[in-house]
Amino acid sequence: MALRCGIVGLPNVGKSTLFNSLSRARAESANYPFCTIEPNIGIIPVPDSRLDHIAQQVKPEEVTPTSIEFVDIAGLVKGASQGEGLGNQFLANIRQTDAIIHILRCFDDDNVAHVDAGVDPVRDKQIVDTELQLKDLETLENRREKLDKQAKSGDKEVRRLIQVLDRYHRHISRGNPAHTLQPAREEKDMVRDLQLLTDKPVLYVCNVDEQSVDQGNQYVDQVKEEVEQEDAEVVVIAASVEAEIAELNDEDERRMFLEDLGLRDSGLTRLIRSAYKLLRLNTFFTAGPKEVRAWTARRGTKAPQAGGIIHSDFERGFIKAEVIKYEDFVRHGSEAACREAGKIHLEGKNYVVQDGDIIHFKFNV
Predict the structure, then answer these.
(1) What is the pLDDT of residues 177-209, one digit of tens each?
(2) What pTM does this model have?
(3) What are phi and psi of 32, to 5 degrees?
(4) Where are the beta strands (DSSP E) in the chain?
């Protein structure tokens, strides 16, 4: 269940450098495979020390992390919503993602040309925002035009849908992304098939110079102020530094490199974790002698549906789930010890899977 994040931004802001660093770094662990499906799509494992700890205790034949897909999407220019540059390809690719990773240039460098005059991350953000909003307005107008004829028949459902479309149109016309509208669930479901570009959650990545990687700079402050009212996260990364780290094969060398910069984790690790958080995901685990594996589930997923992520039979024939809390597993050291201590809980079909649960599914088909 790899969720897909699209890396977007204007040309020369560091998108490809960041993506290439992700692919070379392999999420900072030789045990986690990196797989390129196409030249611009990579499946990146989510770093999780809990998986490593469980594996140390169980000693399985294989260890498999959960993952997120990152897509390096073509750089956008003004007029993309009208097909300028690679606009149509850019917007089509965004439509296929679950979230947007928006890279903003927050560094000065005369050797790296900027597509517009001078460095201004807020202006750059607004250019991308405007193009996405214009495309969404076009999408809404096209759907409404098709519904106008049906509305003349007096169909109440069609009239209701038109009202919802008009509400979204007014909201976006004022320069607001669709994801800040917060409609009723029913209304959101009514426009889901439109795949509005501004309805996707956004993570802003401030690409800074090496000197600013720890504390940020004035550009980062400007971005944070600009997005303060959005339900979004901001991560500070120096893509050039990440490229250097990615070239280091020795884990100790990487650790020393980060310590010299005053960092505990690399920017890529923080980016992956933030993307996982942005998508409102949880991780649950399965553990046995053949494999210890991390699985991705959206927050609020119930036990049968979580089992279905592993195999459809688990959901179709769900009986119960044996659940060990990660903290209990750490405290007692093994499944057998947890069972003896009464720390294995039997849960039914209404159990909501929690982050860190170690689950054994019982099913019958």
Answers:
(1) 998 888 888 888 889 999 999 999 899 999 999
(2) 0.81
(3) -105, 115
(4) 3-8, 35-38, 41-45, 62-64, 67-72, 99-105, 202-207, 233-237, 281-287, 291-298, 318-324, 345-347, 358-363
